[in-house]
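queue> pop job 88
queue> type: inverse folding (structure -> sequence)
queue> payload:
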C-alpha cells in the first residue's frame, strides 16, 4: 500500500516566521547551558541592561574574534614567606656540599 504524504509548504523543523527575525548572515544554534550557569548569565545580563543573547555574543567575540586573553599576573617574590632564620651562603659554600658536573 502506497501512502502519499502531503507536501509541506515549509521544510520540516524550519518555519518561515522564524526566518523573518533572523539576519541573512546569521546561524541559529542550540546550546545546553547548566541551569545554575544560566541563572548567573541572566542576572549578569540584567545588571548590565543587556539581553542574554548580547552577552553570549560579546563573550564569543572576545574569545574568538578579538583574541583577548587575561593578562598574566606578576609574581611577587618570595613565593613562600618564611619566619625562620635567614641563611646566607656563597656559591663556594654550596659547591662544597653539592656536586655539580
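queue> result:
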Amino acid at each position: 500500500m502506497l501512502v502519499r504524504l502531503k507536501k509541506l509548504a515549509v521544510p520540516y523543523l524550519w518555519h518561515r516566521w522564524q526566518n523573518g527575525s533572523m539576519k541573512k548572515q546569521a546561524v541559529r544554534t542550540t546550546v545546553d547551558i547548566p541551569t545554575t550557569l544560566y541563572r548567573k548569565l541572566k542576572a549578569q545580563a540584567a545588571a548590565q541592561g543587556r539581553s542574554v543573547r548580547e552577552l553570549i555574543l560579546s563573550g564569543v567575540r572576545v574569545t574568538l574574534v578579538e583574541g583577548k586573553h587575561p593578562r598574566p599576573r606578576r609574581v611577587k617574590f618570595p613565593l613562600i614567606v618564611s619566619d625562620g632564620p635567614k641563611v646566607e651562603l656563597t656559591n663556594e659554600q654550596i659547591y662544597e656540599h653539592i656536586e655539580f658536573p
